[in-house]
Amino acid sequence: MRISTFARSAATPAASLALAVALLGLPCATSPAHADGNAVLPVEAYGDIVVDDIHRHVFLSDPTGDSVVVTDFDGTVIKEIENADGAFGLALSADSSTVYVALRDAGAVAALSTDSLTESGRWTTGEGSQPQHLAVTGGKVFFGYGATGSGRIGSLDPAAATPVELALPAGNGWYYAPELTASPAAPNTLVAGELGLSPATVAVYDAAGGTLARRAHAWNPGEGGSSNLRDMAISADGKDVILASGSPYKHQAFKLGDLSASGTYTSDAYPNAVAVAPDGTVAGGIDGFYEPDVYVFRPGTQTPFRTYEFAGSTDYATLRPNGLAFTADSTRLFAVTDTSAGDIALRILVDANKADATLALSAPATSRPNRTLTVTGTLTSPDPLPAGAQVSVTRTGPADGIVTELPTATVAADGTFTVTDRPSHTGTYTYRVAFAGDAHHRPASAEVSVSVQR
User: Fold this and answer.
1) Would you say 3 and 91 are in contact if contact means Cβ atoms under 8 Å apart?
2) Could you tell me if 407 and 318 lie in one domain?
3) Which tens digit of pLDDT belongs to each residue from 350-365?
4) Which of 351, 429, 423 has its CA nearest to residue 396?
């Protein structure tokens, strides 16, 4: 289980149309294109994903191909680490020096050096133990293990005289090897959940000192219950755990203290993935053909400010369970998808924590010299814009492409703004208005042209 540790540019048909409209002096609305990526992976199956921001690497496990694939942040494969029998769950050490991998078919947990991208250690968890899910907290690596009907939690402390402990805490068992998640935002806390069962079961443990003591337990959590758990993540403030379950058709949040309901994130059928960025952004994914695949939210809000649809006209891509992960700067979201060709791909979603902004401009088609002309505009976004947002304004023309900077305009609370000018010569003047963007919004720009005639 991943643990939160926290250009190309081309004119689209829509942008070309907007420019053509602008040249006619009619209302014009544009927002900038952004360069997301998509890379087919050399894997037979997918287990887990973890992001190493120090080395700018993404690790993905392949339980069928017995390997861990390492890519850079653009999806280019750097290395395939082999001899990883049944490689499944992944977890990054607190200092980012090691990626731990659960070797389901070898009955072991291995350590991979993030510097050399080679195996640096391996610890057996017992014959037939089948370790599958990992999380780092409380100074140890915890692993969910066990065959069907005998799931348990164990721990690994590489520095201890007896590195591996099994059956933690005593008397607590699971039907399947439990999924695990942890986060530095909630120190010494481990969350465990049972995947694929209806109803779902979730438990929260205190892991201080590397021991486990159950803090909270919920069977069929939430109003109306929860079934077919697929993924979990802890909120950036360390107060909630967010579940992606096949039912209900939304992502649910529960308080880590007692697993009482804390809120919901509106998505669609069937939730199968969730990731939380250090800045609090929540990405919830679903297993769906006809709806957006990923929904992106501000923390504690019910309405997404961004969605992603992976299916194209010829590619019916769907999101893999447990297939989302953010970078530490919160700007890049990785998504693991199936493709209609039968491959597994890594999607690189740039500026995923930022909402689009759209500028719309309107101006008279013609004006006369030395008369005041007015360009009006609106700046809108699905995520509220900051009070007093400003846009820059330039004027080009009427000859030799001379660019003149005009005073900035302040955007009113309703998103409107006004630009005035008094051109003195005849010819065509083009006004370009730009919003620089901010921590929550992407940049946007638009142009409109006016013909000044006698």
Assistant:
1) yes
2) no
3) 999 999 999 999 999 9
4) 429
